[in-house]
Write a structure and sequence with these properties.
By secondary structure, the chain is an alpha/beta fold. The chain is about 30% helix and about 25% strand. It has an eight-stranded mixed β-sheet with strand order 6-7-8-3-9-10-12-11, with helices on both faces. The protein has a four-stranded antiparallel β-sheet with strand order 2-1-4-5. α3 (about 110-120) crosses α4 (about 125-140) and α5 packs parallel to α6. About 35% of the residues are buried.
């Protein structure tokens, strides 16, 4: 499959300013050396606790926030060095669906204007052709055509998120960054929106970077799962392998913390104690060693690199040494 996005060594640090002169006293290491790729028609899910940096990754890829370091290739073009004018042409290839369907739509604009805005901004369609495309987009996301004359406040949360998806589709992008797109919706509506995204992916060959903290959601929609902790990816693997054989202790703890559908079921749970360290002053070595029940002396000193332990399965943990491929079951 063709590579749509490649990220290498991405970092995003936010300065911490203090004092009367607002001098820089430190940095929040929101994203600290993240690397991954996404192929055509694939959904890569970024999961982790709140504050781990997963949403910042998505915003940095779109250059809504400028990266501190690293490289981003979009459609084979390295975009981190492009000027704003040069970047404009590439913005058509990647769009975003935001977490909050209530604040992501302009309340003073009618639905037809909201969806038509990107078509006009990029000089794609005007007049009758623009109106035709707007109606077609509404139909694609399951909304009636009479919605064009209404305002966002007249719709439910699920319908508003469908409007956000229609707006993202207007430019026919290759990649959509979906930042917690169903977290503000009821469970029944979540399923409808997820199924819509999957249907659109199949129809248009879309690729998704899907940001979420909900394991049930990513198990439903994801092809590969990347687990983040304190600004770093600690494990990345195909969905089936992540859920069947999590290798990093943090991934194992996330799986154990997920609610079980059978109330009487019992499972051995890996319990992690303590709070997430501050991203302003992260611990040396493995960032997770302060909460890891398996931590060894070297975990406190040396940061483990991402190592492939099976085809397509990489993990950053000293306890998981690479296994020869011939021995992998």
């Amino acid at each position: 499959m063709a590579e749509v996005l490649r990220v290498a060594g991405l970092k995003k640090f936010f300065p911490v300013r203090r004092g009367l002169l607002q001098s820089v006293a430190g940095h929040v290491r929101a994203v600290d050396g993240v690397s991954f790729d996404i192929h055509a028609g694939e959904t890569l899910c970024l999961v982790g606790e709140s504050g781990c940096g997963k949403s910042t990754v998505g915003k940095t890829i779109l250059r809504l926030q400028e990266p501190t370091a690293g490289q981003i290739w979009l459609g084979g073009t390295e975009v981190t060095t492009l000027t704003e004018e040069q970047m404009r042409a590439h913005r058509r290839q990647v769009q975003m669906v935001f977490q909050d369907p209530y604040s992501s739509l302009n309340p003073r604009m009618r639905v037809g204007q909201i969806i038509a805005e990107p078509l006009e901004n990029f000089d794609i369609a005007h007049g009758a052709e623009k109106d035709r495309q707007v109606l077609a987009l509404l139909d694609k996301v399951g909304l009636r055509q009479d919605a064009v004359a209404r305002f966002p406040f007249e719709f439910s949360g699920g319908q508003r998120q469908r409007l956000g998806i229609a707006r993202a589709l207007a430019l026919n992008p290759r990649l959509i960054v979906a930042d917690e797109p169903v977290s503000a919706l009821d469970v029944s509506v979540q399923a409808q929106v997820l199924n819509l995204l999957m249907d659109l992916q199949e129809e248009f060959g879309l690729s998704y970077l899907f940001v979420s903290h909900d394991l049930a959601v990513v198990e439903h929609i994801g092809h590969r799962i990347a687990v983040m902790y304190l600004g770093r990816i600690v494990e990345l693997a195909p969905r089936e392998r992540i859920f069947a054989q999590p290798q990093h202790p943090y991934t194992e703890a996330l799986m154990a913390a997920a609610p079980i559908a059978a109330p009487k079921a019992r499972s051995a749970r890996l319990v992690i104690e303590g709070d997430v360290p501050s991203p302003i002053n992260p611990p040396p070595g493995c960032h997770f060693h302060t909460r890891c029940p398996y931590a060894e002396a070297r975990c406190r000193v040396d940061a483990p690199p991402l190592q492939e332990i099976a085809p397509g399965h990489v993990v950053a943990c000293h306890l998981r040494q690479p296994t020869p491929l011939a021995q992998v079951g």
